[in-house]
Amino acid sequence: MPIIYLDIETDNSEGFNGLDFFRGRIVTIQLLLPNGKVIILKDPNQVKLDEIKDILESNLIIAHNLHFDAKFLKQQYGITLKNVYDTQIAEIVLSGGKYVGKRDVVGLKDLVYRYCGKKMDKDEQTGFMYGVPLTTAQREYAANDLRYLPEIFKQQQAKIKNKRLETVINIEMGAIPALVWLELSGINVDLEKLELFRINAVKARDAARTTLFELLGTNTINLNSPIQLIKALNAVGLPVTSTKKEELAKFDHPVLDALEEFKKSEKLLNTFIEKMPEYVNPVTGRVHAEYYQIGAVTGRFSCRSPNMQQQPSRTQKNWKEIFVAGEGKEIVTADYSQIELRIVGQVAKDKKYIDAYNTEGVDLHIRTAAALFNIPEDRVSKTQRSMAKSVNFGLNYGMWATGLVKRLKADANVEVTPEEAQIYAEDFQKMYPDVTYHLDKTSKEGLRNLCVRTMAGRLIEFENPEITLEQYFTN
């Protein structure tokens, strides 16, 4: 498949935002063709773009931070880049996760210096204006952004092959068109329903604050000041040293219940309710969140403006009702049931895990609870199942006794001693020996090799481990 290298420049003149896909304008589209010729389309219009639409949609398009270019082209000209390669995404994958969230080391000028030994001048980046002829310096700048991409692509391909990352790269590049569609599509938010949540949250916050002042015997402290709050809690006989959740979980007092309700309502208001209207796009009337397809070293997505991956649906009943479908449409939701544990069971080839998921009517958490508490499965209570769920997930994510104590309190609202948590952990290991062996083997190999690799081939590399391999074995 022929390769076309692509870059765009957007309008940053007064009244325009070069980062706004709905109200911004493309000033130039520059293409490096297979024959080495550079084409610069100035002030492109629909007619011009219709002429090259098929070329852009049917060839391999390579760009740096291609997600940005693809969103502008799709939103403004209906062009869908389908076969793509992003040198920025590739560099993050090649780094073994070390470059995740570090945009200052994966910019185009960083890659040009890393792979080509050249320093790029980005002074002209914000000087492009729609309707204004390009200067000689701007033409040189536009062409320069393409000049080094073939060499970067060539060297990255060699490194990808050497590190056996072909499958992961294909997955990441294949996700880009879907991500472009997701962000541009956005979602409707029912602001009237949101207002009802705001009213109820204000009432709950104010009631909790009144109760707090009564129990603390003062109404002059700032409840959002940890220093003032610690002093007030100490005054009513609670020897807390911080206002962190794990510290407050050590004590039982009505004032802490009121404080928890106050914090929950305050966070709901400040983090979710009051900010949501700010994200409604004035052009589309929808919320268009920004996703990072490699938002963590594990390769999972992250999201912001707003964070649609961490909405308060678990703590706020019916919260999802504020997100509504367009007229004549429906929102379809889907969820993988206990997908992390299913994957662990399959990778570890643990017979008990696999049997639990292959047998209709069997619940892994209930089965674990029955073994932990030595009772029949039909007598497992809701609290015991919740505790077993914390054990199942906690142990699979590397948690041990100390962490399990905190997790049981946070998730199941059950207080246990470190000794009891230790017994639960050891019982889990006896119940699921294949999972235990797999987790132990993987962690030791990770420490020994300073890297781990997923079944898909994703490489995660480590630096400066907290303990040595010898310490791990002795512990």
SSE blueprint and pairings:
Blueprint: E1 3-10, E2 26-32, E3 38-42, H1 46-58, E4 60-63, H2 66-77, E5 83-86, H3 87-94, H4 108-116, H5 136-147, H6 149-162, H7 166-185, E6 188-189, H8 191-216, H9 226-235, H10 245-248, H11 254-273, E7 290-292, E8 302-304, E9 323-324, H12 339-348, H13 351-358, H14 364-373, H15 382-396, H16 401-412, H17 418-431, H18 433-449, E10 451-453, E11 459-461, H19 469-474
Account of the protein in words:
By secondary structure, the protein is an alpha+beta fold. It has 3 domains: 183 residues, Nucleotidyltransferase, domain 5; 140 residues, Taq DNA Polymerase, Chain T, domain 4; 136 residues, 5' to 3' exonuclease, C-terminal subdomain (DNA polymerase, domain 1, Orthogonal Bundle). The chain contains 19 helices and 11 strands. The strands form 4 sheets. It has a 5-stranded mixed β-sheet, with helices on both faces. The protein has a two-stranded antiparallel sheet with strand order 6-9. Helix 3 runs parallel beside helix 6, helix 12 crosses helix 13 and helix 16 crosses helix 17.
Question: Short description, anyone?
Answer:
The strands form 4 sheets. Strands 3-2-1-4-5 form a 5-stranded mixed beta sheet, sandwiched between helices. Strands 6-9 form a two-stranded antiparallel sheet. The protein has a two-stranded antiparallel sheet with strand order 7-8. Helices cover 51% and strands 9% of the residues. It is an alpha+beta fold and 475 residues long.
